[in-house]
């Protein structure tokens, strides 16, 4: 379903028919970018490019889809016949996933016959917008708790199934230890984490019986949920049970808090565990967490070793969308520019150059025309990844992308590392080349 | 992918293994509800029940999934063998989709052997949470503009693919005229709408040439996008072209505004179209709209006939998650209750009774135990929909659910119809039965 060619906006098809009628098949250059960062974001982290390349490589209409389109009466048979052979055969440049990026910087550049390049707009935005939203939110959590175990718990509140799955990938890319989502383990090789539900405790008449039975069933790496009734009373039960569990070979790894004042409970539970001879049992916390709450817990010295983060993370609740756009920048060798009020775009095929200092820390970016010379000391963020509709290399292992994301965060300029609103920090400098400004002025003088 | 049995949280599987080890297979009652409404919502509208029933009817593990689980080393072979025959064979009660509901009211009640009832938690919340979020947001738009053409334009900013598709369904259910998402037309029979992109205009050297070519390609029902360069200048071009288009049999239905001050542009464009002999050409607007902006445009008398609503709608941006929960309420004939701080749930299998006045307008709801007698004048919102894992009736056509949603909105009490924060209106009365309160007190006195 997620990769059906019909998962698109109707206008992509009607425009495709118009291009067919007009015999317009020259090469178009489209670029995907975010116009302006959300007010609560100081940087964005790219994700979703592998999903985009998968989509582009596999895009086609099935016979059933073409039959259905025929039945709508909206399209002429000759056009629908042409869709039997419709494939994406264009070239793609992209930033590497895990790269930090900023407003107006193209993260993806598509060059293909205009129909193909246009048609993929809806799904490309749909993927990159969401995956980058979540990678960014996850990166902010990683910056808030760089040495904690962070786990994505957000499948249930993610916006339906594909979001839950891709959120797990984006979080792992950004530096999370893993996800509770099992399918993310199967599809992406992401480490999968899990504890137990309150219902399991409640289904047993006694909490300690539930602890004992669960530990016996999963002895290798046990996390016990201790907030169903009374958190500290449950911690005391864990202490009392520990010798018997140890004797049976159970590895009691941690306890989980999921409600109440997490800092206060963590301190009390830590004291109970330590006094009970369980200094190695870790405390894992969950419950309406985000980067801000985690920062507060850590600033308060709460003895919490890991965090399960759900709703706020997988919905990017404080910034649930990016101002993402996919715009025509050139057609048939001529640069093009959208000039709608407040939505003007920079014309032409472009490159983004990043200049770094001696330690590799980004100093400034330059958005320039792709054929302008490299600025001194800058390196280009957009790299060729697909030619003629085929990937130039096999998909990069997630581990490599994750290492790249970690390096990006390690080099992130200090003001961008803080979780506050963008307006409260000096913005990262993103410059526009003289060549690009000149071209834009020239286009604005053209008749339309 | 969206319906893989592995699209779940790891703990669902580890608990299932524990229940298997403990030979715990008695009947459990779980209920899905929203604890507290978001601060910006005065009611919620239910959606996603058909997707839940599809999931329950088709749930199974494939051989490949079981092999993968085996390879993780987390599960014992006897347990994995038992999963070959794993199916959902329980009973389900649900509110009808399109029904308005409130905090703590179960919208779905599952009764099944505890493993089956527990396992489905993650996906059931994932579906009902999202679909109800969007149906609610769409219903608010419908209340803001009851006589306007409302179209879902939000696929690209929805959180990945399934969200885009299910959002289209939820919007149509709630009263939208349709969606731009083509797949929603194929899968759900939802009317599909579309216009043209700025890129199409820009790919032509002259805007009027683009208008003419597009109209020739799609003559039956043309909407021209007029904000690419200068909105009023484009409207004047439309007027100039209109006689030639009419002579060629083109039905010029509307023009679309997508940027700038929509009210001001709409007034100027309306005047140009009227003066140019095109009083029947409608004005359609889009661009960062939601129920609040639409209300402002309508209050200002902006001559806009229809709205394309995207990002704010399909991300439910001002309330991107519900405080949804799926809780064990009874096991093996005994009521159960989660007592975690701030997250206490009402125990036992329940029913929600709605009392209405002579015009059918809801007056109050009563949450009661399922075996308590009906309150005078109340009718039960939870109805049986599945028995032994099979639907009791074929899926209800979306048209019927849509009519039900429309009736729900027509009867909605006046304070709930306004888009302001919940705190600024008297809350809708939701009462808890004496029987339920007594049971909760009894459970709280039990040892744990």
Can you walk me through this structure?
Two copies of one chain form a homodimer. In chain A, the strands form four sheets. The first copy, chain A, has a seven-stranded antiparallel β-sheet. Chain A has 448 residues and is α/β, with parallel strands linked by helices. The first copy, chain A, has helices at residues 10-22, 49-58, 63-72, 77-83, 114-119, 121-144, 160-174, 182-188, 198-203, 207-217, 231-247, 262-275, 291-299, 311-314, 398-410, 414-417, 434-444; strands spanning 27-34, 44-45, 91-94, 100-101, 108-113, 149-152, 178-179, 222-225, 252-257, 282-286, 306-309, 324-331, 334-335, 350-356, 362-369, 378-380, 383-387, 390-391, 430-432. Chain A is built from 17 helices and 19 strands. The first copy, chain A, folds into two domains: 10-134 and 322-444, nicotinate phosphoribosyltransferase; 136-314, Alpha-Beta Barrel (TIM Barrel). In chain A, strand 17 (383-387) and strand 18 form a beta hairpin. The mean pLDDT of chain A is 96. The longest helix of chain A is centred in the first third of the chain and has 24 residues, at 121-144. Chains A and B meet through helix 1, helix 3, helix 6, helix 7 and helix 8 of A and helix 1, helix 3, helix 6, helix 7 and helix 8 of B.
Features:
nicotinate phosphoribosyltransferase; Aldolase_TIM (chains A, B); seven-stranded antiparallel beta sheet; 448 residues; TIM Barrel; 17 helices; 2 domains; globular
How would you sum up this structure in a few lines?
Chains A, B: This is Nicotinate phosphoribosyltransferase. Two copies of one chain form a homodimer. Chain A is of the alpha/beta class and 448 residues long.
């Amino acid at each position: 379903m997620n990769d059906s060619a019909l998962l698109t906006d109707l206008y992509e098809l009607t425009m495709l028919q118009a291009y067919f009628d007009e015999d317009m098949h020259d090469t178009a250059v489209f670029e995907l970018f975010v116009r302006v960062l959300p007010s609560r974001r100081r940087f964005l982290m790219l994700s979703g490019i592998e999903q985009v390349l998968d989509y582009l490589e596999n895009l086609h209409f099935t016979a059933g889809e073409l039959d259905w389109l025929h039945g709508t009466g909206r399209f002429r048979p000759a056009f629908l016949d042409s869709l039997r052979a419709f494939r994406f055969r264009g070239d793609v440049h992209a930033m590497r996933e895990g790269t930090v990026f900023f407003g107006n910087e193209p993260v993806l550049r598509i060059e293909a016959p205009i129909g193909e390049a246009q048609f993929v707009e809806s799904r490309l935005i749909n993927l990159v917008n969401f995956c980058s939203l979540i990678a960014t939110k996850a990166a902010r959590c990683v910056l808030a708790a760089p040495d904690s175990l962070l786990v994505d718990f957000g499948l249930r509140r993610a916006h339906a199934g594909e979001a839950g799955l891709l959120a797990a990938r984006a979080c792992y890319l950004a530096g999370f230890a893993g996800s509770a989502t099992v399918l993310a383990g199967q599809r992406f090789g992401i480490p999968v984490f899990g504890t137990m539900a309150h219902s399991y405790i409640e289904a047993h008449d006694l909490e300690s019986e539930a602890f004992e039975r669960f530990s016996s069933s999963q002895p290798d790496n046990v996390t016990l949920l201790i907030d169903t009734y009374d958190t500290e009373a449950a911690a005391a039960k864990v202490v009392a049970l520990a010798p018997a569990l140890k004797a049976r070979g159970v590895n009691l790894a941690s306890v989980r808090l999921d409600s109440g004042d997490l800092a206060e409970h963590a301190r009390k539970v830590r004291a109970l565990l330590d006094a009970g001879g369980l200094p190695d049992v870790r405390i894992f916390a969950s419950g309406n967490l985000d980067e801000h709450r985690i920062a507060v817990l850590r600033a308060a010295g709460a003895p919490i070793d890991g965090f399960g983060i759900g709703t706020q993370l997988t919905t990017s609740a404080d910034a649930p969308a990016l101002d993402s756009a996919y715009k025509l920048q050139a057609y048939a060798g001529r640069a093009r520019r959208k000039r709608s009020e407040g939505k003007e775009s920079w014309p032409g095929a472009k490159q983004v150059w990043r200049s770094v200092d001696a330690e590799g820390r980004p100093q400034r970016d330059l958005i320039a025309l792709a054929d302008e010379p490299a600025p001194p000391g800058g390196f280009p963020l957009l790299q060729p990844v697909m030619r003629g509709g085929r990937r130039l290399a096999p998909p990069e292992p997630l581990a490599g992308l994750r290492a790249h994301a970690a390096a990006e965060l390690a080099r992130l300029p200090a003001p961008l590392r803080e979780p506050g609103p963008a307006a409260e920090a000096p913005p990262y400098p993103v410059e526009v080349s003289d060549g690009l400004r000149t071209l834009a002025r020239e286009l604005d003088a053209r008749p339309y």
